[in-house]
Amino acid sequence: MRRNPLIVFVTLCCLALVGLSGCMAKPVLNIHDAPIPESTGHHLSMGQVEKAIVEAGAERGWVMQTKKPGLIIGNITVRGKHHATIKITYDKDNYNIDYVDSRNLDYKNGKIHRSYNNWVNYLDQDIRSRLAVAQYD
């Protein structure tokens, strides 16, 4: 059976585009006003919130630096070449995770490699888990 070279070429191009679409940039994920749980009407202390955030980040490979109460800068380097910096602001009620900078993550016009968003999403989940546990300590 003889194949039409044009159909083969078009099919291969379509497959390549589908494969590349998974690597395309996505809008940068920032977390805003994520609530900090409270237990029986009592808020966690700023120290408890800071500890939960720093430990959650360290567990995921983030290097967390407390700059002042309410402000943590997080850095992560993956496979020695992909790097991201985030700013985490917090108080007794809420926390925010915001993009600051990156290298080798194709950041452009508010979009970035999807891996960055995964890292931030997992960090957010871990922070929420740590805060939930901290309210019972």
Strand order of the largest sheet: 2-6-5-4-3
Total beta-strand segments: 7
Structural class: alpha+beta
Q: Provide the number of structural domains.
A: 1
Summed up, the helix count is 3
Features:
137 residues, alpha+beta, TATA-Binding Protein, elongated
List the helices and strands and how they pair.
Blueprint: H1 5-21, E1 26-27, E2 31-35, H2 46-59, E3 63-68, E4 71-78, E5 82-90, E6 94-103, E7 111-112, H3 114-134
Helix pairs in contact: 2-3
Please, could you describe this protein's structure?
By secondary structure, the chain is α+β, with helices and mostly antiparallel strands. It is 38% helix and 31% strand. The chain has one domain: TATA-Binding Protein. It is built from three helices and seven strands; from the N terminus they run αββαβββββα. The strands form two sheets. It has a five-stranded antiparallel β-sheet, covered by helices on one side. α2 packs across α3. The longest helix is centred in the last third of the chain and has 21 residues. It is elongated, with a radius of gyration of 20 Å.
Short description:
This protein is of the alpha+beta class. Helices cover 38% and strands 31% of the residues.
